[in-house]
Amino acid sequence: MTIKCKAKANGDAVEVKVLMKHAMETGLSKDKKTGELIPAHYITEVSCSLNGAEIFRCNLGPAISKNPYLSFIVYGPKAGDTLQLTSLDNMGKTDSGETVVK
Amino acid sequence: MRLSSISTPFKFGNFKIMNRREFNKSLVVATAIGAGASMGMIPLTATASWPESAFKAESVDDAINALYGTTEAESSDAITFKAPDIAENGAVVPISISVDMPNVEHVALLVANNPSPLAATFEIPTPGPTTVGTRIKMGKTSALVAMVKADGKLYKAVSSDVKVTIGGCGG
Fold first, then answer.
1. What is the edge-to-edge ordering of all strands in the sheet holding A43-50?
2. CB contact A5 to B (< 8 Å)
3. Which residue, A16, A60, B86, B97, shows the most beta carbons closer than 10 Å to its own?
């Protein structure tokens, strides 16, 4: 549960902002001390759902910055609803978070 | 019963083959995950939905082709970028794409001069005008490309160059 998120309703549209903690290694950079390549480790998928139904998903690549930030607009949730966010990285690790729409 | 199912019409036979294919596919994926996890390797095929070939493509056209199966797209004024003219730090470049179309289904963000151009794809099951934002790494000065699928049609927009003064990958 380390995904931080905020959701704010503005009429029908709900703006969701997400901040995740992740190294997002591309697999192209080298360790400064040993000179060896650091293996790629990045978030590949982020999904947002309301009551178990997916309302937004995105696929990310290694070109996304360290500690990824995402913002998007969804339609459907109302103020007071709880949104669940989950993420999956290329090593199979998952993370989650939830927020109440304001 | 067995005999009769073999001699049933073509349609039923077809159905059976599809089932077997699907089963084989799921088996391959499951094995890949199992092998990756047990050997401490990176399970690149962890999920079938992550478009690996598009993210690994080395040119913008290849990535678009891998995603949508075509590179033909209309250019559109309804797609607008919000990006800095000069990015002081290529490792963190804030980008947002606004699409003023009624039924946006899919948005893809590409960085033309990155080693793998595709940065992210967004799937939006609830239709409506949308804005997606994120922070990306840029290796060097480059234009941004946004692909938008709305009402089954493909649209493309190319931004003006974002100048990068320090490399995105620690260089």
1. A94-100, A82-89, A43-50, A53-60, B118-123, B104-111, B144-150, B153-158, B74-75
2. no
3. A60
